[in-house]
Write a structure and sequence with these properties.
The structure is a single chain. By secondary structure, the protein is of the alpha/beta class. The chain has one domain: 3-Layer(aba) Sandwich (Rossmann fold), CATH 3.40.50.720. The protein has seven helices and nine strands. The strands form two sheets. A seven-stranded parallel sheet has the order 3-2-1-4-5-6-9, sandwiched between helices. Helix 1 links the parallel strand 1 and strand 2. The chain is globular, with a radius of gyration of 17 Å. The two termini are about 30 Å apart. The mean pLDDT is about 95.
């Protein structure tokens, strides 16, 4: 599937993987729809894309709110008449040890990392089913495979995203031509770690930060690879780790 002129919704597009993916796909001719809560960052990204000759639409929204997704889909269809790709990228990672009982943070992870993905799929699926084509990309994590201390809830949310992706693929790809990919990165240099409030976890990560992390652009390349395949080929999972990361 050539991404040129394809309409691509990207959540969490204001920074990190979302921003890098928007730049990459727009460079190859995709019409990118940028959504996140930080309108100033989205408009700044839109300016970069348009300066390079690309096409971008900004629609601010919160992935945990179904009404925001309905507005996003409506504005996308009004502007571009179609939705070809959804990239569920928005996520939170406020790691903490279970005994700290940071239950508010647990709930936020479930709301954004799981419910946000469900809301996105529910919003775009009617259009994709009607068109009998499309591609849903869910950004999971290597944490979907391996538990690490402080990551119990985060790992659980990403394991849910990975399994949901496989369910989507089995139900949608054969019957409706909708491909589904789970992107599963290891440590990536993004703002994700800024959400950690547990001081013990912050101390633990000081040692890990001596390692060379992946860059957001590396994940954007993986997403582009999955999208650039012919419709007959479904890239189910992309598991990408920093060379220095063991697990």
């Amino acid at each position: 599937m050539d991404v040129k002129n394809k309409v691509v919704i990207i959540t969490g597009a204001s920074s990190g993987i979302g921003e890098a993916t928007a730049l990459k796909l727009a460079e190859h001719g995709a019409k990118v729809v940028l959504t996140a809560r930080r309108e100033d960052k989205l408009n700044e990204l839109k300016g970069k894309i348009e300066k390079n000759g690309g096409t971008a639409l900004v629609v601010t929204g919160d992935v945990t709110k179904k009404s925001d997704y309905e507005n996003l889909v409506e504005k996308t269809l009004n502007e571009f008449k179609s939705i070809d790709v959804l990239i569920n990228n928005a996520g939170l990672m406020p790691l903490s040890y279970i005994k700290k009982l940071k239950t508010d943070e647990w709930e936020k992870m479930v709301d954004v990392n799981i419910k946000g993905v469900l809301n996105g799929v529910a919003a775009v699926l009617p259009t994709m089913i009607e068109n009998k084509r499309g591609h849903i990309i869910n950004v999971a994590s290597s944490a979907a495979h391996n538990y690490f201390p402080g990551g119990a809830v985060y790992c659980a949310t990403k394991a849910a995203v990975k399994m949901f992706s496989e369910g989507l693929r089995q139900e949608l790809a054969p019957k409706y031509g909708i491909n589904v990919t789970s992107i599963e990165p290891g440590a990536v240099s993004t703002e994700l770690m800024n959400t950690i409030t547990d001081e013990d976890i912050k101390e633990q990560f000081k040692e890990m930060q001596k390692m060379t992390f992946l860059e957001a652009e590396d994940i954007a390349e993986a997403i582009y690879y999955a999208l650039a395949q012919p419709a007959r080929a479904n890239i189910n999972d992309v598991f990408i780790m920093p060379t220095e990361q063991q697990r």
